[in-house]
Specification:
Order of helices and strands: HEEEEEEEEEEEEEEEEEEE
Structural class: mainly beta
Number of strands: 19
Strand content: over 45%
Number of domains: 1
Radius of gyration: 21 Å
CATH topology: Porin
Number of helices: 1
Distance between the termini: 37 Å
CATH class: Mainly Beta
Shape: globular
CATH architecture: Beta Barrel
Low-confidence stretches: none
Amino acid sequence: MPFIPPSYSDVGKPANDLFGKDFPVGSAKLEVNTTTPNGIKFTVNGNKDNKSGAIASDIKAKYTDKSKGLTFTETWTTSNVLGAQLELVDSIAPGVKLDLNASLLPEKGTKNAKAGVEYKQEYVFTRSSLDLFKGPTLFGDAVVGSNGFVAGADVAYDVSEAKVTKYGAVLGYIAPLYSVSLLSANKFTLFTASYHQKVNSDVEAGARAIWNKALPNSNVSIEVGTKVVVDKNAFFKAKIDNQGRLGLGFTHTLRDGIKFAVGGLFDTTRLNADVHKVGLQLTFEG
């Protein structure tokens, strides 16, 4: 069967999603998604930090023309940051995606703009982008793969300074029911090994180990986690690391278009201390 490898940032994604998603910790979140009859999708996000009480939100409008492979997204945040993104997929050639992403903070005149191109076909997935105002800096990554095996590398080059600012590499194996990956980032100082398995249709399990050799006396951080589907409308997630931090999350679809999630991160070595974090998220789809 044809094998198109994932993008560089998506190697190890199943394990990263297992440990990172569906744990709304330390805040109360609200997300509302609506779609107009002419196909414009509006998304409103709100986030209240439980510790500081600060509220941040943004509104996003997304227009998609599938016949032309065009997607245009506008964003406005409560920090008064205006953003726009234009994507063209398969319009120039099959497997080619063009992306232009820009933002502006009018109060301070801060501008950001990044132009990128992505190409994917059987056995290869490569991306490059140019940050027009920071440096400018050229980013690039590529992943090649066959029969489930993947290997890739990424690099960033500061044009004005004429020097490489970051580089890394990744190796992995992707099968229908499990995947493993080894990532080295930050100029080969940060190492992450991960494993993810679909035990059956209702259970997922995974493990992840992280070592940062740039930190003095750095130990390996290890965490294990699982996802259990309770029924078609609910699932439970749990994770724990070798420092005794326990994460719990429960997500339930209350009805069509309404999803509720609650989560917490607890330090099992200091159960009586005020160091635990809880949070919740409510999502509406309309």
